[in-house]
Design brief:
Chain lengths: 387, 387
């Protein structure tokens, strides 16, 4: 067991990391995660962007049989929008990895993160793959470090359940510093679960965790969340038990991403209730979370509730426009779509802001979205030349 | 005829303006536009926001019979989200105006722009209405000045067609400086047109002018575009002729709004072609125009075409994700979804940037959206306390 419990702590998993030379900084930039079995169950959730990177394209194909034995990671280059050469390069590295490990290329996935539109530096990555393959071990923390881009800390998770355990690593500052916004997550478990159990648990967890971390509506060409199950514990938890731990892992990693956001001075949670259904509530919450006027007001600690009403009023969902209630940090600032007497005095100077909006339909729908303010640092980071 | 040809130049129209005291600056803040007939045709296009201001609510009701004889304007207060008191105040000022002019309240409209959530200062607006009613004359320019908020110049239009003419005034920096984003436009004409002709011309013109000026997807609680026709020329142009002049007026005022945007260092036009249809092209163009990463890149003069692909890839329209072409200022930067060799050297340092995207569906759909960069000034303006 490694000193940092994480992806290599569950039985059946090894990992390696290396500074191959993709990043000009010389920091580690490649990692390999291997599932030694006896089972090789894999579930995945990928970007919804119609434009997706070569590693996403290939990993989607390789995971169709719900089986992956290894995943090759790199940071510093997204291998997106590189055409056929991008596909060829990704597949070539996957094949090299498979050959080194004595497995089939179709059982290897790949995840990349970095700048879009530059070809992979194959001259440094080929020796990188060889070095990774021959250095597999129990220190998953090194892999978590190797996938970092603008992240300032490695993001890891571990939960022991007695008979079985689940570890995780993630990178990304969500959509928070989206110049390198890709979110990569790898969860490993020694639970003996079916592919169906794994996909069900992962899909459900993503929809209420990573999928609610939303700063500007951007979803990267490379976003990939994988769950690998070795079955090495020989223990099969119930679906409910498994769901709960996978959810906990996703929630914990999402909150680590939000906390590590660059260019952010406020962490903002936006809860919509009183919607017709949960989907409507999520749509409305996203409209507020993506609204630049609201986000500028949060940056200025300005309880400008009128902007929340303007933003939510644009949401294509049912609401009672004359009876909307808004609360900032629990204080009512707008009741029945009208400002309260002391609304403009509510203190939003702290680093955390909660916004609650009741759409007053009488329906049970509710959802929460996690976003940030729109700060000068955000503009700085994202206007830097081809960052 | 006034020295500035505008809304009072077409026969049958008078206007007045006054500094009633709504604005702390002491600048003019109320205006009245009167149609003396003989016809009183009115067409309107209003905000699509589900949350809309009291004047929008009432003017929508009063224009249902396609007849307005006067419109009362004020800046400095949006009269939005003020509940029943907001409705009562707006209706009270409308009734006072109607009584002064000897017409029915149902033939008077109202438009407000300013901060959301403060009650109208009726103590200064009541005497304001009386002063306006008794000072009607031919200087429409003063009215154009009175409806300004963050605008730095009054926005006017005039076109003489021989037998008839059309004037206009507008305020708003589009969605460009959206802290006070309301767009108000009033067009006047002495053409003898039917209500159907007027509404058809106005709706069509708005969809390809004001509706394509889009910086952050926000549409205000108060947006109102009105077209008033007096019939005083006795001349009835063809629908095509009328459409063309109304379109020209809307286009000209829209470009004036874009040019007067605060917090903007780049004017960006985004054209999408090769879409299945024009609606799909518009949706895709909006996705790019609203994307903060693209907008930050424009601010930084950064030809970061990868962000354009990420943004357009999120659009819920048909595209060929592996064959998208992108051009910056006419230079190909991405062909078949792959960067061109000199893409990162394209010069975007000028104040105008054109982005063209071909979705490669083979379809005829095309649309252009006008947007801006995301600058530090934008953040400054919109994070100022309850601006």
């Amino acid at each position: 067991m490694s000193t940092h419990p994480g992806i290599t702590t569950p039985a059946g998993f090894r990992a390696a990391a290396i500074a191959a030379g993709i990043k000009p900084s010389g920091k580690s930039d490649m990692a390999l995660v291997v599932n030694d079995g006896p089972k090789f169950i894999a579930a995945g959730v990928f970007t919804q962007n119609q434009v997706f990177a070569s590693p996403v394209k290939i990993t989607r194909q390789h995971i169709q049989d719900h089986c992956l034995k290894a995943v090759l990671y790199n940071s510093g280059n997204a291998n997106a929008c590189n055409g056929k050469q991008g596909d060829d390069d990704a597949l070539s590295l996957i094949t090299q990895t498979a050959n080194n490990l004595g497995i089939e290329p179709a059982d290897v996935g790949a995840c990349s993160t970095g700048l879009i539109g530059d070809l992979l530096p194959m001259n440094v990555m080929r020796p990188g793959v060889d070095a990774l393959s021959s250095n597999l071990g129990g220190n998953g923390h090194l892999a978590a470090e190797a996938i970092m881009t603008t992240d300032t800390v490695a993001k890891e998770f571990f939960s022991a359940q007695g008979e079985w355990s689940l570890g995780g690593m993630g990178k990304g500052v969500g959509m928070m510093a989206p110049s390198l916004a890709t979110m990569l997550v790898c969860l490993t478990t020694d639970a003996d679960v079916t592919a169906e159990m794994a996909q069900k648990a992962l899909g459900k967890a993503c929809s209420t965790t990573f999928n609610t971390l939303d700063v500007d509506g951007s979803t990267s060409t490379n976003d990939t969340v994988l769950l690998l199950a070795s079955g090495a514990s020989g223990y099969t938890p119930s679906q409910e038990e498994f769901d709960a731990v996978v959810y906990e892992a996703c929630w914990d990693l999402m909150k680590q991403m939000q906390a590590d956001a660059e260019g952010v001075s406020k962490r903002v949670s936006i809860t919509v209730r009183g919607a017709e259904d949960n989907d409507s509530a999520l749509t409305a919450a996203r409209c507020i979370g993506r609204d630049n006027l609201c986000k500028c007001a949060f940056f200025g600690s300005d309880p400008n509730w009128g902007r929340v009403l303007v933003a939510v009023g644009m949401a294509p969902v049912v609401m009672d426009p004359e009876h909307i209630n808004v609360y900032f940090n629990g204080e009512p600032v707008c009741l029945d779509s009208t400002g309260t007497p002391h609304a403009r005095e509510v203190d939003l100077s702290g680093p955390d802001i909660s916004v609650e909006v009741d759409l007053a339909t009488g329906g049970p729908g509710t959802a929460t979205v996690y976003t940030t303010d729109l700060s000068h640092a955000y503009v700085d980071i994202n206007s830097a030349y081809s960052s």
